[in-house]
Amino acid sequence: MISEKMMSLGKKSSVIRGIFEYGKKRKAEIGAENVFDFSLGNPSVPAPKEVTEIMKEFLETVPAEVLHGYTSGPGDIGVRTEIANYINNKFKVEASANLIYMTCGAAASLTISLNAIVNSGDEAIVLAPFFPEYRVFAEQAGATLKVVPCKKEDLQIDFVALEKAITNKTKAIIVNSPNNPSGVIIPECDIIKLSELLNNKQEEYGTDIYLLADEPYRELVFTGEEVPYIPKYYDNTIVCYSYSKALSLPGERIGYIFVSPKVTDCGDVYAAVCGAGRALGYVCAPSLMQYTIAKCLDKTADVSIYEANRKMLYDALTEYGYTVIKPDGAFYMFVKSPVEDANEFCEMAKKYELLLVPSDDFGVNGFVRISYCVSPEQIENSLPAFKKLIEEYKK
Amino acid sequence: MISEKMMSLGKKSSVIRGIFEYGKKRKAEIGAENVFDFSLGNPSVPAPKEVTEIMKEFLETVPAEVLHGYTSGPGDIGVRTEIANYINNKFKVEASANLIYMTCGAAASLTISLNAIVNSGDEAIVLAPFFPEYRVFAEQAGATLKVVPCKKEDLQIDFVALEKAITNKTKAIIVNSPNNPSGVIIPECDIIKLSELLNNKQEEYGTDIYLLADEPYRELVFTGEEVPYIPKYYDNTIVCYSYSKALSLPGERIGYIFVSPKVTDCGDVYAAVCGAGRALGYVCAPSLMQYTIAKCLDKTADVSIYEANRKMLYDALTEYGYTVIKPDGAFYMFVKSPVEDANEFCEMAKKYELLLVPSDDFGVNGFVRISYCVSPEQIENSLPAFKKLIEEYKK
């Protein structure tokens, strides 16, 4: 027999994918312009033109056997040095190239980090709502996933619930801010509180509890504020970064792991990251992309488009009578279902050709996720449908 | 405590890497032209110019949000269709897009395939000499590795030893032809014999034994013959392909898994491949590279350079008195150590600034591997050193 677990993972496509596939079918039936697909987090804004220009320049000037040759396993040392310098300038921490490991994007950053630190029987905590693949990644690494719901009113950390969930087996807590699926950003005061709680628990149990900061949406913030940089607040932090959203390069699979120098025995943890990358078959991150992002560290895709989408959608939905958690970042909006069962609400939405994702898969009930990384036209055209949809529930 | 296993994998760099690092140091000391580094399998021949041209064309003509957007998890359907058509035209098997899964290169092809089929306690067999990372990949997937030595005289399969090694726990046999580190190609008659043996054992035990055909060197053949395509001979075959060597793109991490349609319940195995890719954090293979290789399926890097290197080196070494296993493919040559301990021989070689890899890590004793994917000048300049080295043993 083959691996039943892997087979079922392969067969059971995610709910999000299922809705997306329905959307493709529906578009073929009634025309793409008549289906309002808000299911996927696929950036609609192109990569900055500098990214394209740098790639073309490299292709024209760097010998192909160098440009496309193996880099060292952790990534090209020049690239890692540039990233370390960028982090240090921006966040005033002491990053160094030998604590940075280039990855094939955020999913790889997480799977590699989890495999590096987890021993069989350890527990990993996620704060709901959470990105559903966290469960797959944590369980593959041998951890048991514990889900701690956030506070229903603002989807911020429920510290009472979190404290109860931490045990002497807690190896990792995954924090995702700005959050997918809610767009919520954890404020500095809560990061400080989280840090204090984890330090106390580490002392109480004599263990190390690693905070995995999953940060692909760091650059997508609409409040004008900087998202708190967790290594500044909590020592045992491993940053899992990706350029997928910041530079609109999700298909290229490029990101990094940064093991904070303040992590206990950070050299050992970094070595375990390198070992896990090796064991999972990641020989190196794609070389052309490594060199390219190193030249674009201060660039981001034009996030003002997402900001405008957010405003248009938020203003309209609240006006129509929806209850919306106002998103401060990312390109997701979490909307309260007017009925208890969000799946039922999503089925009703389909009648208006609105494709929304029920929140159950994200570990909470009663919400839907709207991915507004779509064209402004799609949002504008979808508004009458949103209006009619909520009116169904006012009858 | 973090994962000791991953930490030790990260700390213990491979023997090959160790020699390569020594070489870098030595080059800095005495000049690169005076060090004859034959340690790494990093292609010296550039990618075909068509690869560069196609990439530039895509960058100029395809909208960035499409070119760099997510593809589906198994890879872009158009790309997979083109690969399936190419395989069918070339090998007359019935490949289809829905049995092809795009990967980040051969290492990913192997780790994903192994995780798809292996349950804890299963055994995976490798034929020595073998690429040392096979052990890391198989053990990560939960398998126990069994090493079956090839026949010392020609490094071909020892069927008596192999038959003894197969048990009811044998889940996979990894076959690598042309072989790294020996360059040996398994002839058709042996593939037929292997197929018969495995079919008998499957029947005897009522199990499925998967043949993983690791084929990154398929296009690097110097005998004018086609390497036997294993799915034509053995039903339970999973092809693990990579474009790293064929198109000289090792840093870009692009390849595929092809589950033969004759594999038992091939749809389930393919689903398990998709599930394993998902669980290991491979969201999709790099998108630009997917689209690029699909336009270059009939291209290869200029392997005539490797062929000339092979001839120059083989002719000289045999003339000097070395015993060489004549390599039919890849860009490796396996040379008998004139003393029992190949490590001792490699230390002696260092005195002549020749950096060779002892065979112990490849699972056999008494040989060294020479990677001749270097410049013809390096080979020419190294010949006097090779001559003096063997003369040490004639005294």
Polypeptide structure, described:
The structure is a homodimer of 395-residue chains. Chain A is 42% helix and 14% strand. Chain A has helices at 4-11, 15-30, 49-61, 64-67, 77-91, 105-117, 133-140, 159-165, 188-205, 266-279, 287-294, 304-320, 342-351, 376-391; strands at residues 36-37, 100-103, 123-128, 144-149, 170-175, 210-214, 237-242, 255-259, 324-325, 332-336, 354-355, 357-358, 367-371. The radius of gyration of chain A is 21 Å and the shape is globular. In chain A, the strands form three sheets. The first copy, chain A, has a seven-stranded mixed β-sheet with strand order 2-8-7-6-5-3-4, sandwiched between helices. A four-stranded antiparallel β-sheet of chain A has the order 9-10-13-12. Chain A is built from 14 helices and 13 strands. Chain A is an alpha/beta fold. In chain A, α3 packs across α11, α5 runs parallel beside α11 and α6 (105-117) packs across α10. Chains A and B meet through α1, α3, α4, α6 and α7 of A and α1, α3, α4, α6 and α7 of B.
Search tags:
13 strands, 42% helix, alpha/beta, homodimer, 4-stranded antiparallel β-sheet
